[in-house]
Amino acid sequence: MSETNEHSRLFLPSKSSPSTSTTEVTISWSNLHVETRNSSSSCWSSISSSCFRRHKKKQEKSRILLQDVSGTARTGQILAVMGTSGAGKTTLMNALSGHYGDNLLVPSGNVYLNGFPTTDTERRKSGHIGYVEQQEYFIDTVSLEEHLIFQAMLRLPSEWTDDERRSRVKNTIAQLHLNKCMKNTINQLSGGEKKRLALASVFLTEPSVLLIDEPTSGLDSYLAMHIMGTIHSMAIEQRK
Hints:
The chain is an alpha+beta fold and 240 residues long. Helices cover 30% and strands 24% of the residues.
């Protein structure tokens, strides 16, 4: 990803205060190009009938995952990215959030927040982008409330007091209608409740941009409709 120079920094409000309201943020991306990195794989080939073998390196070609992809999403909008399996939807989410792995390379293109080009690190640390990945991993033996309290300790600014963190957890639980199961351990939760817990974990920081990979994957039609209704309600709240 192209790095920002010293004259083009990210000018967005700090999220250090509990009273800071959700900031209106427009995220846009221009001519994103993502490919896998070249890697060397090892293979052994016999050069004689003896046990002596020669070690050879085989260079693998890089594979293009996204090519010249551009778009824009604004606060309060829901933008659906659709495509067949392997089309690059998750790759796009990873690139926008700045969380793609070491095996991916972004040689060209930019991601902008409110018109300012950003680095991967800036997007990860800004607090204005939340990313709910397709597969979320939880500790099954802790309660839903305990999980969110722990997430609040990790995600919210160090300046916040314990009471402020607990208040944010309480409000987030209420917002996502998780009150009835907040004392249940995670292994007792339904699929829909776990999806909402994944949303709650990210929404603790009240991100202005929420990236969700496969929000209804593995859910029946009722739960899928409920999750999308929750997302729609969150978008409406952002417009106020």
